[in-house]
Specification:
This protein is mainly α. The protein has 2 domains: 80 residues, 434 Repressor (Amino-terminal Domain) (Orthogonal Bundle), CATH 1.10.260.40; 45 residues. The chain is built from 6 helices and 2 strands. The radius of gyration is 23 Å and the shape is elongated. The chain starts with a helix and ends with a helix.
Length: 135
């Protein structure tokens, strides 16, 4: 079975149309029909964020079960699997991508904080606030 066929099997299991699956994942409506031999890391990120119960090892390599195991505390646990070197490199690339995004978000947060501080100074500069307090 191909990656595309396994994804379609999961979509059917979820009782979704391919279009609705794509909408929920935030990908183009033709994503499923255009899948080739594999799915790139950025798309896997989107799918796994929207459907954490999907076992990505099963999706990519047909290892294990379609679904991640759910325990009594309603938290997901990955079943014990052996990950081939090729899959491990994809996982490492995804981790690096997430770390890079985290750094970008941190930088943007600092820029936003700086802009807020600048706006506050323009709305009420320190000298004006002192005059208002004395005044």
């Amino acid at each position: 079975m191909t990656v595309k066929e396994r994804l379609i099997q999961f979509i059917n299991y979820k009782n979704l149309s391919a279009r609705e699956f794509c909408r929920q994942c935030g990908v183009s409506s033709s994503f499923v029909s255009n899948i080739g031999k594999s799915i790139s890391g950025s798309y896997l990120d989107k799918i796994s964020m929207q459907f954490p119960d999907l076992n990505l090892s099963w999706l990519l390599l047909e290892n294990g079960n379609m679904l991640n195991i759910q325990n009594d505390n309603s938290t997901l646990q990955m079943e014990s699997i052996t990950i081939p070197v090729e899959a491990w490199s994809v996982i490492k690339q995804q981790a690096a991508s997430l770390e890079a995004r985290d750094r970008q978000i941190d930088t943007r947060d600092r820029h936003i904080d700086d802009l807020i501080a600048m706006l506050k100074q323009q709305i009420m500069p320190p000298a004006a606030s002192k005059k208002a307090a004395c005044g």
